[in-house]
Amino acid sequence: MTDASKPMALDGLFVLDLSRILAGPTATQMLGDLGAEVIKIENPKSGGDDTRSWGPNYARDAAGQPTDLSAYFMSSNRNKKSVAVDISTMEGQRVAQALASRADVVIENYKPGGLAKYGLDHETLTARHPGLVYCSISGFGQTGPNRDQPGYDLMAQGFAGIMSLTGDPAGAPTKVGVGIADVMCGMYATIGILAALRHRDRTGEGQHIDLSLVDASMAWLINEGCNYLVSGKLPERRGNAHPNIVPYDAFACSDGHVLVAVGNDAQFRRFCDLLDLDETGNDARFATNLARIENRVALTKLLSEAIGQMSRATLLKRMATAKVPGGPIHTVGEALASDQAKARGAVVDVPHPDLEGGALHLLANPLKFSATPVQYRRPPPRFGEDTAAVLETLAPQDADLPQK
User: Fold this and answer.
1) Is the pLDDT reported for residue 364 higher than 90?
2) How far apart are the first and last CA of the chain?
3) Using CA atoms, how far apart are residues 72 and 25, in angstroms rounded to an integer?
4) Taking each helix axis from N to C terminus, what angle separates 153-160 and 180-203, rounded to the nearest 10 degrees?
5) Average pLDDT of 217-237?
6) What mean pLDDT comes out for the span 148-160?
């Protein structure tokens, strides 16, 4: 839980967030969790970040009415202030430029070149503020033949190849169940920003970070991407199975599914023993992982028949006793209510006295620091709730900033 008496890793860092939806907000929430002051600019014409209206699940006010705090919005917007500013107006540009002039970091996800007409592009801002770290997130990046195409998580997963690897082998290519392209892009953005700040602190020089959903998604093809680069063979869609380890899959017991993740030959022999498959454990076709990969179909058939005769509880108990890696397939509810999740604080209650129940239940930041712990200082903001307070901090000289 929050311990306000302890320092935070990014105390004193000021971040101007011109991003919306998920990739940029994921990065700025992470920076906010670590102590940065994050001001989120939201367009009053549209009612703010698009995800505020992405229901059907909303936090409710004290009268039980839905608010502009959708579950989607709340997933990536805590520890921020919301300022309602229309940057298409001269006044809005003045405010945003004034905030940028005092920022350590600006992060945006407009189409490439889209902020130049507002005087909020990297070139314009760094001419006045050379130490600024400016992070641009887009679908395809600031260069390349697709730079002007819009980018969404689904499209990035498709273009980058990850969908071709995901789903049942006999079914259609399938996206990952959450917006993983956006989330991972946000994580790369966080790493890039922190690295650029380290450089800025040493040299005084800021820089432009150019990051795209597609680039990030290709980077996290990891072993399957390298498998292709080494072999020239296209990876196959294998459902829950692993391309380089066998058996590593979900198997059907008599009352549901269990995960099996055999990582070496000794574990495989113990797994066969607990299934009463002594002959299989000693079969030369399956003695090594490479042999098991080559004989994947035959082995999977033998294992599936034996596992199908057992209950989940029996199999998991035997695997635990034999020290064979595996586990259950939880629903989201089961995962978040598990003893492990409770022990690790996977869910955090963030006070919000204006809402029904007086608090929001949010997914916690997974980072555990010994000296500078994560703090949940602010709940996800209502639209524009900090506008007046932030505008009061602008100095008179800010009115002299150049306008586009």
Assistant:
1) yes
2) 45
3) 11
4) 90
5) 96
6) 95
| CATH hierarchy code of domain 14-220+341-400 | 3.40.50.10540
**Pairing state of beta strands 359-363 and 347-351?**
antiparallel
Locate all alpha helices (DSSP H) within 102-212, ordered by sequence.
122-128, 153-160, 180-203
Pairing, β 37-42 against β 58-60? unpaired
Number of H helices, E strands in the chain: 16, 13
User: Is residue 45 scored above 70 in pLDDT?
Assistant: yes
In this prediction, residue 396 carries a pLDDT of: 61
CA distances from 322 to 248, 255, 269, 272, 315 (A): 16, 21, 10, 10, 11
Contact 312, 256 (CB under 8 A): yes
Q: In what order do the strands lie in the sheet with 133-138?
A: 81-84, 37-42, 14-18, 105-108, 133-138, 207-212
Looking at domain 263-324, its CATH architecture is 2-Layer Sandwich (3.30)
CB-facing half-sphere around the CA of 332: CA atoms within 13 A: 4
What tokens does 23 get?
A: 């990739």
CA pair distance 232, 359, nearest whole angstrom: 53
Type of residue numbered 9: A
Owner of token pair 């999977």: 300
Angle between helices 23-33 and 180-203 in degrees, nearest 10 = 50
Name 253's bridge partners: 256
On whether the CB atoms of residues 395 and 110 are closer than 8 A, the answer is: no
Residues 125, 404: Cα–Cα separation, whole Å: 12
* Domain chopping of the chain, boundaries: 14-220+341-400, 263-324
Q: Which residues are catalytic?
A: 182
Radius of gyration of the chain from its Cα atoms, rounded to whole angstroms: 25
pLDDT tens column, 189-215: 999 999 999 999 999 999 999 999 999
Q: Is the peptide bond before 247 cis (omega within 30 degrees of 0)?
A: yes
